[in-house]
Design brief:
Radius of gyration: 21 Å
Number of domains: 1
CATH superfamily: dinb family like domain
Number of strands: 2
Strand order of the largest sheet: 1-2
Helix content: 55-70%
Oligomer: single chain
Shape: elongated
Largest sheet: 2 strands, antiparallel
Distance between the termini: 87 Å
């Protein structure tokens, strides 16, 4: 009787600690955390650097009627940062759903490459188009972006939550919450490239 009771207690402990193999522990390792933080910090610096010292004429220059200005690109970056961040936060509030990991068909590197690839142009949702973001000027957009990005970086530095076992569906498919975090930074990089295309246009003002 004592052996049977002891065996049950051991089995219970195994289940509680996850050692019974029902749910694997997908806590982020040092390399994953370092990569995610590096991508976030790098793209934050690039946004600031890309608009530093630009004149009002340069910020408002439009290469073609259907193209965004430098300022509008930043509006979109800031609004997207906030929206994607809220999607991430809501996903992390939900219980892990490791059974959905089988739906993920893309690696971390493939996700980042896809998000930054401007060879395939996509239309931004209405709410994320520059005129609908609610921003009135560049400093306002930059301040909102900095606030969101600071929060995201702080989260990755300190979080011990299981991002890999929380899986969400976006328009392009299923990804886990670590990949969603990478997507936030990579999407930012995509529109930084768009911004640089405007600055490289033949008619871009000299000052």
């Amino acid at each position: 009787m004592l052996r049977r009771t002891t065996g049950r207690l051991i089995l219970l402990l195994l289940v509680i600690t996850g050692s019974a193999g029902t749910i694997q522990n997908h806590a982020l390792n040092k390399q994953e955390r370092k990569y995610a933080l590096g991508l976030m910090k790098e793209t934050q610096k690039e946004v600031t650097r890309s608009v530093k010292g630009l004149s009002a004429a340069q910020l408002s220059y439009r290469p073609a009627p259907d193209r965004w200005t430098v300022e509008e690109c930043v509006y979109h970056i800031a609004a997207s940062e906030k929206l994607l961040g809220s999607i991430f936060e809501e996903a992390m509030k939900k219980a892990p759903n490791p059974e959905k990991r089988a739906e993920i068909k893309i690696t971390d590197n493939e996700l980042v490459q896809m998000a930054t690839d401007r060879s395939k142009k996509n239309q931004a949702p209405e709410s994320l188009r520059p005129g609908n973001t609610g921003f009135k000027n560049l400093p306002e957009a930059l301040a909102a972006f900095k606030e969101s990005r600071t929060s995201h970086i702080k989260y990755m530095r300190t979080s011990t939550e299981d991002l890999r076992n929380r899986v969400v569906q976006l328009a392009f498919g299923w990804i886990d919450c670590y990949q969603l975090y990478l997507f936030i930074a990579a999407h930012n990089k995509r529109h930084l490239a768009q911004l640089e295309e405007v600055k490289a246009a033949p008619g871009f003002p000299g000052e």
